């Protein structure tokens, strides 16, 4: 991997992923899950002379694996981070906090990590994670969380950073694959809780595999690596197939929300006149269901709630996912009018395509409808760099200062020109200000 030989599109995408995920991390420090994970990490994963890192988004220090764990839970606690259709998951929520924790320790040990090298490592983490994620899904019928495959990318990235030899690298990959949590994603879709996409335990497994292999622990082979086609590395980049979310909710719900936005722009109607909202979409999205949420996690893994929130508020941000918004009477009344139905053609198109049809029936009998809607942010209809920056500013508004927002945006845009990533670490490691 040589940053200078990477296509400009890949270089640009790595920076987009970095800015977007850091924005989510800053916004997510208000979630209960993130606060619990940070306390747990500082208590149970104490720092030592050979393993010490600041926490992402919170005061305090702990071991490198503990910091990676806390950071991954943090990012995963607000479902606004980037993702990938064929893996049906998210590499960045595990890869980035793992990289930050390892680099923060090395930086404190007076090791200089350049911005270019940091981004090279980030690309490795994403690329190996995404490829092995595709392979893992081929090997089993059960749908596992991102924590099942992202640790393998963490192991590859960490092995390069610590300059492990070939044997150690092979064992690190194998350990990560073997110990990665194969958590059943659909259980959390049906019963949403803080466990989410397995990112925290994935980071813990990935980071630990690197240090264990360095000490001589064995675990090769990683079957998802040996089965993957390595011939087209550097010819195609799965990183370029990343999507970005306009809203902090499950990607499966976003086509329906996009459809509502489309109808709001196309027709002039008062939400008081809505009689019924019919959503026809793919099976996995229907599984999100329409239960009235009692927690932020249930709101993020819902389809009825965000559709109702968009109609009521005209926006969906971190505030709408906050527990204080869940009892909004207007949102609850609108959500009661939502009806879900599976569309077999949309199910057949999943996961490569994610469609929703929405029909809003008004009290006077008029039906406002739109079909085959996909959410913005995919490769075919991407968010622009300006959109990503706007999302970053909206998510972090009121948590960090405007000055700090601008510093982070500028720094990340030019990170490959920085001789040392210490300025980046100092801006994001620790409690936001």
Cα shape: globular
Proportion of strand residues:
5-15%
Tally the structural domains: 2
Rg from C-alpha positions?
A: 21 Å
Topology-level CATH name of the largest domain: 2-methylcitrate dehydratase PrpD
Helix-residue proportion: 40-55%
Question: Spans with pLDDT under 50 lasting ≥5 residues?
Answer: none
Mean pLDDT: 96
* Strand runs, count: 8
Give the class from helix and strand content and strand pairing. alpha+beta
Protein traits:
single chain, 433 residues, alpha+beta, 60s Ribosomal Protein L30, Chain: A, four-stranded mixed β-sheet, two-stranded antiparallel ribbon, 19 helices, 50% helix, 8% strand
Describe the overall structure.
This protein is an alpha+beta fold and 433 residues long. The protein has two domains: 3-246 and 382-428, Orthogonal Bundle (2-methylcitrate dehydratase PrpD); 251-373, 2-methylcitrate dehydratase PrpD (60s Ribosomal Protein L30, Chain: A, 2-Layer Sandwich), CATH 3.30.1330.120. It contains 19 helices and eight strands. The strands form three sheets. A four-stranded mixed β-sheet has the order 6-5-7-8. Strands 1-2 form a two-stranded antiparallel sheet. It has a two-stranded antiparallel ribbon with strand order 3-4. Strand 7 (356-362) and strand 8 form a beta hairpin.
């Amino acid at each position: 991997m040589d940053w200078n030989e990477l296509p400009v599109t890949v270089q640009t995408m790595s920076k987009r992923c970095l800015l977007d995920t850091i924005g989510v991390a800053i916004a997510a420090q208000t979630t209960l899950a993130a606060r619990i994970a940070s306390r747990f990490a500082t208590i149970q994963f104490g720092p030592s002379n050979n393993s010490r890192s600041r926490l992402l988004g919170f005061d305090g220090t702990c071991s490198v694996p503990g910091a990676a764990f806390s950071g991954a839970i943090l990012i995963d606690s607000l479902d606004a981070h980037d993702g990938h259709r064929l893996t049906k998951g998210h590499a960045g929520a595990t890869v980035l906090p793992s990289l930050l924790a390892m680099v923060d320790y090395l930086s404190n040990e007076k090791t200089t990590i350049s911005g270019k090298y940091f981004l090279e490592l980030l690309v490795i983490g994403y690329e190996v994670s995404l490829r092995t994620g595709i392979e893992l899904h081929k090997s089993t019928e059960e749908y596992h969380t991102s924590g099942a495959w992202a640790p393998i990318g963490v192991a590859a990235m960490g092995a390069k950073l610590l300059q492990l030899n070939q044997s150690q690298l092979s064992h690190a990959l194998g350990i990560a694959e073997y110990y990665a949590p194969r958590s059943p994603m659909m259980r959390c879709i049906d019963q949403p809780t803080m466990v989410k996409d397995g990112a925290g335990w994935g980071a813990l497994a990935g980071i630990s595999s690197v240090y264990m292999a360095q000490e001589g622990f064995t675990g090769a082979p990683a079957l998802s690596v040996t089965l993957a086609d390595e011939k087209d590395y550097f010819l195609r980049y799965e990183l370029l197939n990343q999507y970005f979310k306009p809203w902090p909710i499950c990607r499966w719900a976003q086509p329906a929300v996009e459809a509502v936005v489309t109808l709001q722009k196309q027709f002039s109607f008062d939400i008081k006149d809505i009689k019924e909202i019919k959503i026809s979409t793919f099976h996995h999205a229907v599984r999100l269901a329409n239960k009235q949420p009692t927690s932020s996690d249930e709101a993020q893994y819902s389809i009825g709630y965000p559709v109702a929130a968009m109609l009521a508020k005209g926006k969906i941000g971190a505030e709408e996912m906050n527990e204080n918004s869940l009892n909004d009477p207007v949102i609850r009344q609108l959500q009661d009018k939502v009806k879900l139905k599976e569309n077999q053609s949309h199910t057949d198109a999943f996961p490569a395509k994610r469609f929703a049809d929405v029909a809003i029936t008004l009290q006077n009998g008029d039906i406002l409808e739109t079909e085959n809607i996909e959410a913005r942010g995919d490769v075919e209809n991407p968010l622009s760099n300006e959109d990503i920056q706007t999302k970053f500013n909206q998510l972090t508004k009121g948590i960090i200062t405007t000055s700090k927002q601008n510093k982070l945006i500028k720094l990340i845009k030019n990170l490959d020109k920085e001789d040392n990533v210490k300025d980046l670490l100092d801006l994001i490691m620790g409690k936001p200000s």
